[in-house]
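Moderator note: this is an archived Q&A kept for reference. The question asked for a predicted structure of one protein chain; the sequence and the answer are reproduced below.
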Amino acid sequence: MSSSPEALKIGIIGFGPFAQFLASTMVKQGHTLTATSRTDYSELCSNLGVDFFRDIDTFLNVHNDVILLCTSIVSLSQVLKSIPFHLVKNPNILFVDVLSVKNYPRDLLLQVLPETMDLLCTHPMFGPESGRDGWDGLPFVFEKVRIRDQDVCSSFLQIFELEGCRMVEMTCEEHDKQAARSQFLTHTIGRILSEMDIKSTSMDTKGFQKLVQLKESTMKDGFDLYRGLFVHNKYAEQELKNLELAIQTVKQKLLDRMEEK
């Protein structure tokens, strides 16, 4: 496990449940946090030890080392349009996103970020549910898209190293290829099971219990996340087609066997 990272000043845009989940660990490690969000989280932030700003102009005027984007996938474009980047106090700041797709935020951020600002695209492959007992061994995927201040980038990554995350460096492109098959497919199966309204029975097998758990875990995430995984990952549509084909293939095999003597 890494030694404690150098304390950073981190600003968070979007302070929903996932941002709150990350912030609690960052505060525990000794980092100084500020936040802004459409919803008024003043009281919650006060309890967490985070300074909250309703006004984004005032938020950007704080001299942070890092700005962490914790918006939803579907709202990212609108959020970026609302940020007056010329007001960012630190012209060499590191922007970090934590979205579940990677090509999409990378491309958008490269279009709008001033050249002086660094960019780290990340995906913590866990959340408040899977990471509630700690982050040890959980994967943290990242790409150093544009990094000039290696010290700040290293200190930010050490937040996750310190908690025992399995650090996986890969391109945004490769992430989306793999995530379309793993994350998107998992969410799709979970939502199919929900549409079938499967529930525990008095004679559940271990396998069926896992299916119920998958359904329940998937449905804790809103449909906007699932929609974002599909709309903003160019590889997701093919995986959906592959799933449909696989279901038809299995069905046909059963029907063929029914005709055997």
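Archived answer notes: Strands lie at 9-13, 32-36, 51-53, 66-69, 94-97, 118-124, 139-146, 166-169.
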